[in-house]
Amino acid sequence: MHSAHRCWNNPLRILFLSPTAQAGTAQYNHNLMNALADRGHEITLVTSLGYELAEFPRRYQLLEVIDRYRLQYSRLAALLRLLRVLRPEIIHFQGAQRPATYVVAWIALRLLTRARFVYTPQDILPFSERSHHTHMLRFFYGRMAHVFLNAQQNLATATKLFGVDRAKLTVLPMPDLLAFMREQDVAVPPPIPDGRRVVLFFGQIQERKGVDLLIDAFAETLRQVPDIHLAIAGKAYMNTKPLEAQIECLGLTEHVSFRPGYATFAEMAGYFERCDIVALPYRYGWNSGVLASAFGYGKAVIATRVGGFDEVVVDRYNGLLIPPCDSSALAQALINMLSDGRVYHELCAGATETAGRHSWGQVAELTEQCYLNVLGRTAPKSA
């Protein structure tokens, strides 16, 4: 259901700039931009070549001009023409990787437009943090009229590390990133044996996400719950050979599906439809769209008390919370959830209820109000 449409005599002209053309940031942008368009605004996305959502229904304009975080000069004329025609009032940066790209883009767009700039970092820190990134991001944050975060715990990093005024910060809820897939019915079933209950780890495979801890916990759980299967899927940002060796050493080859590669949205939907539990065994982190998608599919979760998870996961209501870096606690949580059908179904019901509290229409309305505040404008009454 779309949010209430307003009678805008002068709708906001908003340009999203996101070098990321795939995965969670692209999903976030797609959902939010469609919801903003439903509220009557003119939305355009400037992103990289090969935008993964180009073929999905959208209510915003699309211009692919970036190639590997560099501007494709053959398409520069199209970008300049877009800026001249759109005359954006708001330029909304999305993402946190390659801070230099964002600084250069800000400098160029500041010269070419009269827009106000806002920013959603998604991950409050880049995956591959370098010493100069903090200085560069501090400079970039200082040029933003407003900054949107996805977890309360990120407020401290934004204010203390990057020097952002608290009044310029808004924490938004994270709805289901796969909400747009509900209309498509194109889920691709994953290669998992029938008749097994599935524990899913989905997302970028990084050391901080504790996949090794999950494998150890799964081995312990399997001894008491023999009809389970572990699915690990997502693009790897680490050497996965130790994980593969760990699976083999523990004798789990027939019980674990390990796919360290990028999964399409249809494949992602297939994993969430097929799984019974979503595990987020992070050692540390900032926030996760995987959690929101798990709730969107009505799946109970087991998550560590990091990354703002405990802002969303209510222990024993929509999931189980455990301490980080504790494979024994993770195994016990899996056993508890898988051994008691009543508890499991209650947690799934809680997950579904939690997902229903937040929508992209709600996030669009909150985002719109921040845009208006930055521009010193007020919204018309709803039609």
Automatic annotation (TrEMBL):
This is Glycosyltransferase subfamily 4-like N-terminal domain-containing protein. One of its GO terms (molecular function) is glycosyltransferase activity. It holds the Pfam family Glyco_trans_4_4. InterPro entries: Glyco_trans_4-like_N (IPR028098). Residues 24-173 form the Glycosyltransferase subfamily 4-like N-terminal domain.
